[in-house]
Amino acid sequence: MGHFDHRLTDARNIGPVIAQKLHEIGIHSLPALAVLTPVKAYIQLAKKSNGIPPPVSHYLYALQGALMNVHWIKLPKRLKQELLNKLEKERAGAKRNLKGKI
């Protein structure tokens, strides 16, 4: 049985608090997280956080590390930068969409 077959709380970097927050946005498994992507999951978590986005390291990097079965601090710097770039691109796209609806 691979690490994708376990409960979220069995995954590296995901404790009960992050698992509960993921459940609140409809993520109940690592395969579901992989489909949504860590970046989009982070954005959804940030939307539910009452205006204070969760720390990138404890959420965005942790979610990516969970999918890779690696502690978030050991993610390559290049990958962390790619995640940040994707996050900014998603946020910019969301802002453009909001402006178009006004």
Describe the 3D structure.
- InterPro entries: TfoX-like (IPR047525), TfoX_C (IPR007077).
- Residues 6-86 form the TfoX C-terminal domain.
- This is TfoX/Sxy family DNA transformation protein.
- The protein is mainly alpha-helical and 102 residues long.
- It is 59% helix and 0% strand.
- Helix 3 (38-47) packs antiparallel against helix 4 and helix 3 (38-47) packs across helix 5.
- The chain is globular, with a radius of gyration of 14 Å.
- The relative contact order is 0.14.
- The model has no long low-confidence stretch (mean pLDDT 89).
Shape: globular
| Helical percentage | 55-70%
Major β-sheet annotation: none
Q: Round the Cα radius of gyration to an integer and report it.
A: 14 Å
